[in-house]
Amino acid sequence: MDVFVTGGTGLVGSAVVAELLGHGHTAVVLARSDASAAAAEKAGSKTLRGDLADLDTLRAGAAAADGVIHLAFSNDFSSAEAVAQSVAEESAAIAALGEELVGSDRPFVTVSGTPWVPGRASTETDPSPTDGPVGGRGRAVMAALDLASRGVRSSAVRLPRTVHNEGDGGFAGLLTRIARQSGVSGYPGDGAQRWPAVHALDAAVLFRLALEQAPAGTAWHAVADEGDAVRDIAAVIGRRLGLPVESVPEENFGPLGPIFAMDQPSSSAHTREALGWEPKHPSLLEDLENIRP
């Protein structure tokens, strides 16, 4: 397939593009800057210049492709307003991409987050969260999955809170950056809350499998580690950076504080069985050993 990829030069996106190219597909990557275009072309893909707010460019990319993988998100968590703007921008992009594919039976793989369910690990059958600071992302992805009834082979790969590679990425990467800035490797509450995780290279395999195999209207979990205690994550970060490890107020984590404090383990048992996906790369706690002081 010739696949149009948004976010194709990020931590996850670059791994997805490499996975596609390594399995006989071609890729056209949305590139918003000269640097992004150069990185994508060096990796072996073609580029389409534009950004996530350029809906006409997104439609053109989808129209010319055999399938679409959407990964782009601004990841600006500096304030509640910035998060809301990022979610609104992405929601409009997902809607534009999906509408362009209506009636084509082409695959449309979107990115989502694993849900949280009180008292147990979430599964692929649990609905996406539609409330909280990033609840709009869940609503946008649910709308994309509903396009299954309009001739789109839409699916969602739900990523855990930490997608990592070489000790960086996701919520754990944010904890590391906050620790460097504050001088304390902190965690909210007692730190017993659990976060799921996956290596970016393992997640990339699942995006390819969803593109190739996923039935319309389905959700899949890219979860390798069902749930690591946040205090254990903070302990590795603190040891690698030579910083004290302690509980800090939820407010220290900005608009994501309430999400950071949640216990949110997640299972990928159905995904592994149905799509034959099997993570092979280092776990989060192993990968965090790559953090440089």
TrEMBL record:
CDD domains: SDR_a7. SUPFAM superfamilies: NAD(P)-binding Rossmann-fold domains (SSF51735). Residues 3-216 form the NAD-dependent epimerase/dehydratase domain. Residues 113-134 are annotated as: Disordered. Pfam families: Epimerase. InterPro entries: Epimerase_deHydtase, NAD(P)-bd_dom_sf, NAD(P)-dependent_oxidoreduct. This is SDR family oxidoreductase.
